[in-house]
Amino acid sequence: MKRVVITGAGTINALGQNVSATLEAMREGRCGIGPLEFPDVDRLSIKIGGQVKGYDPTDRFNRQQLSLYDRFTQFTLIAAREAIGQAGLEFSGDLAARAGVVLGNSGGGMTTLDENYRSVYEDGKNRVHPFVVPKLMNNAAASHVSMEFNLKGPSFTVSTACASSNHAMAQAFQMVHGGLTPVMVTGGSESMLCFGGVKAWEGLRVMSKDGCRPFSANRNGMVQGEGAGVFVFEELEHAKRRGAEVLAEVAGFAMSSDAADIVMPSKNGAARAIKGALQDARIAPGEVGYINAHGTGTAANDKTESAAVADVFGAHADRLLISSTKSMHGHLIGGTGAVELLACIMALRDGIVAPTIGYEEPDPECALDVVPNEAREAKVEVALSNAFAFGGLNAVLALKRFS
Amino acid sequence: MDSSAVNIRDRVIDIIAEQAVLEPSDVTMDSTLEDLGIDSLGLVESIFAIEEAFDISVPFNANAPEESEFDISTVSSIVAGIEKLVAEQHT
Q1: Number of domains in chain B
Q2: By residue range, what is the domain housing residue A210?
Q3: How much is the ipTM here?
């Protein structure tokens, strides 16, 4: 089997509009969550989110592109340009024919849907712009990345709610690992921060009105974010031949299904995914130095996840570091695992573990070292990234430091 | 040609020119959409803009353009079709 490394990374999210700005914010424990800004926000009971601010789409895209690019597609293309630019790859000939793009996404073009429902239902209009469908479809982002970069190999979108990006990156990993293609572009994106998107989430009563405080005893729910994370997964020998810089190695992954409840998490399902990722990567539990937690800040997730980690790691659970960067960038739903993979890369490459900010009170049910409030220096050889989705679909990735 | 007809023609040319990313002076009455570089998506977007501008409904099915009552073969035929629709739908 081929070894798989990451040779490019890109992002835009509430913490920054590229990787270096995002990692700097994570090192400083900065919070990207603030008051939401969009029409009718006064009719919402949840008024905060990790929104991308100071962003003008017309700086990046022309009018014709914008008629086809929903916000989630715009974010994806911005992240893809950064990742592929860093990797220094140009896709032509055989490489173009084999390389593809697999992305995670949950809500599709929610803003497009919202605006057009408003137009026909509220404003009573009888026609909508002809590109509503190609703009809102979940695969629009993957398709536009394929077109902009000439990726003609296997390309599709994975939708498994909050685990979408991890499932997508697992697919891309498997394709490169198995020798199907030397390069895959992968990651995910989400943009549900519009009136209808947040209104739907309010209904579940799992959202916090005042902040995301994962693992803290006074946590009171998740806060939604938006943005994208995109990576270049490349076969190690291919990367070496062209002298590419390696950010980290993708060592393995596992997926599991709780087969239990449409919203409540399961300790057993989470533990099986974590254990499976270690087995796939041939890593002993004691080698894991950092886990980027799913850590949503809900009562149920954080205690279930802590119990699963304790189950898998035993005594080592007290020695490893685990943090939830959702406290800073919010929960990007289908894009979240992709942005969170950046924290794993930072831990492995730079030896800096991003904190869980907003941590105020210890919770005996989450008795792990959650790197409260301040980033920490640590030599990390192996990092895991957890994602446990609504619907009980779990995906965990294992990354190794590359030296 | 009365003033409303001139108005329709100029507004249609403006819409088509914007879609083709050209100056209105570059769009002549005998231009075809192909001449102007407008593809199938550009065509449906132009029809949408025309419907919005004149508050009319244009009978056009992209699956069978030749069977549509609306003739899109040239700018001139499009303008004529719209003048007819405006007359029919605004009486």
Answers
A1: 1
A2: 4-241
A3: 0.81
